[in-house]
Amino acid sequence: xxSLLAPLALAVERRFGYPxxxxxxxxxxxxxxxxxxxxxxTCLNTxxxxxxxxxxxxxxxxxxxxLAVLIVTVGISTILSWLPLGWLVEMLLATTLLAQKELGxxxxxxxxxLRASLSAGREAVSHIVxxxxxxxxxxxxxxxxxxxxxxxxxxxxxxxWFFLVLFGxxxxxxxxxxxxxxxxxxxxxxxxxxxxxxxxxxxxxxNWIPARxxxxxxxxxxxxxxxxxxxxxxxxxxxxxxxxxxxNAGWPEAAFAGALNFTLGGPRSYDxxxxxxxxxxxxxxxxxxxxxLLALLLYRRTLDVLLGLSVAIGIILLFR
Length: 320
Prior knowledge:
Keywords: Cell membrane, Cobalamin biosynthesis, Membrane, Transmembrane, Transmembrane helix. Belongs to the CobD/CbiB family. One of its GO terms (molecular function) is ABC-type vitamin B12 transporter activity. This protein has one domain (2-318). The model has no long low-confidence stretch (mean pLDDT 94). It contains 13 helices and four strands. Helix 1 (5-16) packs antiparallel against helix 13 (289-318) and helix 8 (138-185) packs across helix 13. The chain has helices spanning 5-16, 20-25, 29-44, 51-81, 86-95, 100-116, 118-125, 138-185, 197-206, 208-221, 230-240, 250-260, 289-318, and strands at 264-265, 268-270, 273-275, 279-280.
């Protein structure tokens, strides 16, 4: 029955998500990873260290994080394998490391808030992006929401699922630990350029296949979204993905842009500094709340395609 772990995890998490009362009482696994990452940085990323020492310290921190996650999750998986319905518990634990429901809810909230007012839209989008929301007009808020939706489809859903299929609970947990470390310390600034180098590079490696798989899934999902273009989705992904500084982030973003005939990307403001980022796609750039809803429809159909793929893989493994 472990072959059905991944499709069931997708279906259950998409319907129920992670209960809010659990966040309030015990937190969330990503929060636990974050606490450990922060503690390790306090101990290891000291100003007195040279750049090379910081790089080594970051590598040690990443190794300790992954070792801790590996020991805990392999131990849990081993114990659960001895129990009659242990695979079902493992599936429920795996759902905590997927983000389908919360991602959709957060992006939908931006659309609803933007319909009310620009200030409400800026407030809503500030919860899901790192850029300066006060510098965004309505089109900027909408583009930021769609860009986050596209990128997070890959690293919040497809990539965790990919490693769950390959390695079970330890696989999805290790991926999320690396991805969390990259989001916290994988920045190109004075504080993290060297210390976060290992986390950023490993995250790039782990996301290489899932990012391209995400673009393919978006392309297939276009067949189920009125007006979406599968040919433009894939062509834009292949043409524009390489423009991104990241070897992976451009793939889902460019696929969304091509599929919906949007222009995404472009200059962004972070902490008062304008970062000139490339544009993806060559369509409509003046987006609004309805365009966010269209992107959400493409997102949901992408999840449907992913679930179908997961079921097919599960059946093949079940009867091999």
